[in-house]
Amino acid sequence: MKNSSQTQSQENITSVMDEKRVFHPDKEFTKSANIKSMALYKKMYKESILNPEKFWGEVAGEFHWFKYWTKVKQWNPPHAKWYIGGKTNLSYNCLDRHLNTWRRNKAAIIWEGEPGETRILTYQVMFREVCKFANVLKQLGVTKGDRVAVYMGMVPELAIAILACARVGAVHTVVFGGFSAEALKDRINDAQAKLVITQDAALRRGNLVYLKPAVDKALEGTSTVENVVVYRRIPDSNISMSPGRDHWWHEIMQSVNDQNEATQVDSEHPLFILYTSGTTGKPKGILHTTAGYMVNAYLTTKTVFDLKDEDIFWCTADIGWVTGHTYVVYGPMLNGATSVMYEGAPNHPEPDRYWRIIDKYKINIFYTAPTAIRAFIRWGEQWVLKHNLSSLRLLGTVGEPINPEAWMWYHKIIGKSKCPIVDTWWQTETGSIMISPLPGITPTKPGSCTLPMFGVLPEVVDRKGKPVPAGSGGFLIIKDTWPSMLRTIYGDNQRFKKQYFGDYKGYYFTGDGARKDSDGYFWVMGRVDDVINVAGHRLGTAEIESALVSHRDVAEAAVVARPDEIKGSAIVAFVTLENTKIPSLLLKEELRNHVAQEIGHIAKPDEIRFSEGLPKTRSGKIMRRLLREIATSGTVVGDTTTLEDFSVLEKLRSDEE
Ligand code: PRX
Least CB-packed of 214, 474, 548, 609 within 10 Å? Predict the structure, then answer.
């Protein structure tokens, strides 16, 4: 039998323009939502655009400031400053601020290890651990502005480490634990990190993923790192420690006291660098600063996730990605919320692990990626139905466009047709959610991330920067600045200017293609540059190509994406070998492993195709469009008039057959 809310929301499905289905908010949800009406959203949105000083001043006023700002916003495209003249501390606002309230004993983090153990860290406990680790940082000579690389799995100590960095004014750069030693080395070198925080090994699908040995390897090619702190996750991991340089977390934490006064930092003090893929081979260090990021992370968490004090919030992202920074750690803790952190894989020991966790902790808000949803669909709903998910009241997605089928499955099977879905569009560069429904208010259309968040002015434009008519495709740009906007690419301001502000003067270019419908709803179609979105992770084709070319047998490589049912995109690499080298299955495997070693497993090509040549224009540019067509459908239907050597195409086609 259907419950009443299920019936009600199914009745709410109406058919509108483009025959797209619209899901109207459930009235019960609206009644208790943080933002209760469309009219209120519109009023707040208008104010955030027309009177940012007032709007953003009021939000920031909820925080602790050692010194108030004198001016909220300064926008000299492409350079933004927010809360000018202010002094604050993010760690203080995440922790100390809650200690004089009842939240002192509230769970800040509920952690579940892959083998099944639970750890609950209250705000008081987090505060104490963060203070102690801040003292460890000081003891190891880390001071304001120093860069600290963090290379860990999903353990509470990762959250403690970054909060401690913020506390002393050090700039953290979290490197996803799935990246290789080589990738870690590049990031340490680019950031000139002084300290590395890691763990012996992480657990993934019951296997040990050794992290400390990868750090040792990375440090062979770096010269800036003075100390390494190693958290022990595995009792008998038996890793080697280098005396003088390496320190066990549990030992060094014993030698410090638990009092640490948060360092006062300027609003624009750098908070973190997070590397992400771009259109060239070298990952970009996206730099975020303190106060603007803090305010935006706080506000979006509160409004998009309709966060209440009683809620248990689970964002499944790894802290190695921006989603984990903003919606596992900073956003929830700025709100004094309870955030769930799970260490392992969604299908370990069985494909119902997530549903088991939701049932066990009675999670209310669940935020995950479309690629995960598609995997759940494939694993089958019987795994979901084994568990009681009635605690859920809100669902979210992020990372790539969600296909309407996956949206519907998420809505019906996970949300039991009663939970609103917030499809949130944003990027590493934007720091926080930019376009998203507000639950209980915004009617949703499967596949659309709907309307802009406060202070965000998106537009879909043509090549010349002119807005395109409703319903037409174009490039997604953002006018003006917003508080959590990236400030630059670390160490490469020229690249920052060119990459984001080079195409549409004065406007931030997202790299995404999109269209806006006649209701003003945004539909993001995906990247229009050479960046691929694989299982919600961003990878640059150039990055994978340069990894392939670094193999001694490879002369040239071109990487393209082909649609994949689960991962969104699969990686297809066209490889030309050095003259004397002979193609073989073994070599294909070797090349795939080589990429994994250079970048990490996430970048491993799904398919390698050897070809005698690559299709190029007369000026020598690889025609990726043609390769994409070949990889996807096996034929080329587009324009080939600029192709330099037609025989290459013929060969590529016949190689495929
Ligand atoms: O292409 C868009 C896609 O992910 C890109 C940003 O990737 P990254 O910086 O790794 O951050 C991912 C998590 C914030 C965007 O340029 N993307 C992200 N969210 C959505 C999306 N595409 C469509 N719909 C979304 N909700």
Answer: 609
Q: Using alpha carbons, select from 412, 433, 179, 150 the residue that is nearest to residue 315.
A: 433
Cβ neighbors of 157 (< 8 A, separation 6 or more) are: 199, 231, 249
**β-bridge partners, 47:** none
**C-beta of residue 180 within 8 angstroms of C-beta of residue 209:** no
Q: What SS3 state is found at 630?
A: helix
pLDDT exceeds cutoff 60 at 7: no
Instruction: Return the closest-CA partner of residue 502 out of 529, 524, 527.
Output: 529
Which atom of ligand 1 lies nearest, measured to the CA of 525?
23
Kindly give the number of the ligand 1 atom that is closest to the alpha carbon of 428: 9
Distance 433 CA to ligand 1 centre (A): 10
Neighbours of 551 (CB within 10 A): 20
Residue 524 CB less than 6 A away from ligand 1: yes
**Is domain 530-656 classified as CATH 3.40.50.300?**
no
Distance in Å, CA 11 to ligand 1 centroid: 31
Q: How far is CA 302 from CA 77, 305, 331, 384, in A?
A: 29, 6, 8, 28
Q: What whole-number distance in Å separates Cα of residue 271 and Cα of residue 265?
A: 10
Query: Measured in angstroms, how far is the CA atom of residue 128 from the centroid of ligand 1?
Result: 35
How many C-beta atoms surround the C-beta of residue 366 within 10 A?
A: 28
Q: How far apart are CA 495 and CA 436, in angstroms?
A: 29
Q: Which atom of ligand 1 is nearest to the CA of 449?
A: 26
State pLDDT tens for residues 185-195. 999 999 999 99
Our answer on whether the CB atom of 435 is closer than 6 Å to any ligand 1 atom is no
pLDDT digits (tens, 9 = 90+) for 279-288: 777 889 999 9
Q: Where are the domains of the chain?
A: 530-656
Residue 239 has pLDDT above 90, yes or no: yes
Q: What does the pLDDT look like over 69-121, one tens digit per residue?
A: 999 999 999 999 999 999 999 999 999 999 999 999 999 999 999 999 999 99
Mutation probe of ligand 1 site: the residue of 179, 326, 374, 398 with most atoms within 8 A of C-beta: 398
For residue 401 and ligand 1, the question of a CB distance below 6 A is answered with yes
Residue nearest to atom 21 of ligand 1 (CA): 400
Nearest protein Cα to ligand 1, atom 6: 427
Among 276-285, 335-344, 406-415, 437-446, where is mean pLDDT lowest? 276-285
Whether 293 and 329 have beta carbons less than 8 Å apart is answered as no
Find out whether the beta carbon of 513 lies less than 6 Å from any atom of ligand 1: no
Question: Which residue minimizes the CA distance to atom 13 of ligand 1?
Answer: 399
Q: State the Cα–Cα distance between residues 604 and 589, nearest whole angstrom.
A: 10
CA atoms in the 13 A half-sphere facing the CB of 623: 23
For ligand 1, whether the C-beta of 526 sits within 6 Å is yes
Q: Is the CB of 276 under 6 A from ligand 1?
A: yes
